[in-house]
Specification:
There is one protein chain. The protein has 253 residues and is α/β, with parallel strands linked by helices. Helix content is 38%, strand content 18%. It is built from ten helices and nine strands. The protein has a six-stranded parallel beta sheet, sandwiched between helices. It has a three-stranded antiparallel beta sheet with strand order 5-4-6. β4 and β5 form a beta hairpin. α1 (4-16) packs across α10, α5 (83-93) runs parallel beside α10 and α8 runs parallel beside α9. The protein is elongated and about 60 Å long. The model has no long low-confidence stretch (mean pLDDT 94). It binds nicotinamide-adenine-dinucleotide and zinc ion.
């Protein structure tokens, strides 16, 4: 049984020799930025009903409940990228990571400098009025939330919906197929901060494995899929990822 130092070294070696690495992230990569996760011991689902606040039927019933929840998700502590986001962006800058596939809607990868980001569940960047069709940018919406005002369009309609995928909605087909392509063609597939329980996103590591890629996971706790991975590191993404990058720099010829 390896200790964490050896595992970080082995992960570093695999990544240093990669031709085309892909990083797949979930809520755990943003936890140290102060964005709460859904599952796990302090996860939001211990206090909120996902059907009520994060499904398309819940949104149609009561958009206000959705926005109260979103406020807690994204505003409680103004989230900034953490060392894990920066480490992943650095691996792209070094030419090793070719794509980041994320389930997150918080835009923190882009803010850390990642260029090729596939957002499987969309993002909060654009918010559309479902009545008149006006589009708002996140900055404007954020100001309304900060002022604690009612979320409604200039036309009076309360159905302002960000371009995120709610429960009951389809994933964007183009983003999903591009993510599957990336997973099939990579030689290293690294999961950072995901419980790997939401499908179809959680199938991606299997596409990579079936195509012969090496699999690495960095997650705070065990997942049901750990046995499929070549290297399993249980730890905090913001601590482990910068150490992996250090190892990569040392080992890369
Ligand atoms: P999840 O909440 O199901 O799982 C998160 C995983 O991260 C857990 O296994 C947990 O142990 C781990 N984790 C917690 N803190 C960590 C840390 N510091 N370092 C490493 N790992 C840590 O999240 P998921 O797998 O992304 O899937 C659920 C859904 O949640 C997705 O649909 C996603 O859209 C949504 N979500 C997004 C955000 C966001 O945009 N930041 C936040 C919450 C949920
Ligand atoms: Zn409107």
């Amino acid at each position: 049984m390896w200790g964490i130092d050896e595992k970080i070294e082995v992960a570093g070696e695999i990544i240093a020799n990669a031709r085309h690495a892909v990083v797949f992230t979930g809520a755990g990569v943003s936890a140290e930025s102060g964005v709460p996760t859904f599952r796990g011991k302090d996860g939001l689902w211990t206090r909120y009903d996902p059907e009520e606040v994060a499904s398309i039927t819940g949104f149609r019933r009561n958009p206000r409940a959705f926005w109260n929840f979103s406020k807690e998700l994204l505003l409680k502590k103004k989230a900034e990228p953490n060392p894990a986001h920066y480490a992943i962006a650095e691996l792209e800058e070094m030419g090793i990571v070719k794509a980041v596939i994320t389930q997150n809607v918080d835009m923190l990868h882009q803010r850390a400098g990642s260029k090729v980001v596939y957002e499987l569940h969309g993002s909060m960047e654009f918010v559309d009025c479902l009545d008149c069709g006006k589009t708002y940018r996140w900055d404007e919406i954020e100001k309304i939330l900060e002022r604690d005002e009612d979320m409604k369009c200039q036309c009076g309609c309360p159905y302002l919906k960000p371009r995120v995928v709610l429960f009951g909605e389809q994933l964007p087909a183009d983003v999903l197929s591009a993510s599957i392509e990336e997973s099939k063609k990579c030689d290293v597939f690294m999961v950072v901060g995901s419980s790997l329980v939401v499908y179809p996103a959680a199938n991606l590591p299997m596409y990579a494995k079936n195509s012969g890629a090496k699999l690495i996971i960095v997650n705070a706790e065990r997942t049901h899929a750990d046995d499929y991975f070549d290297v399993v590191i249980h730890g905090r993404a913001g601590e482990v990822m910068p150490r992996i990058v250090e190892a990569v720099k040392r080992l890369r010829r």
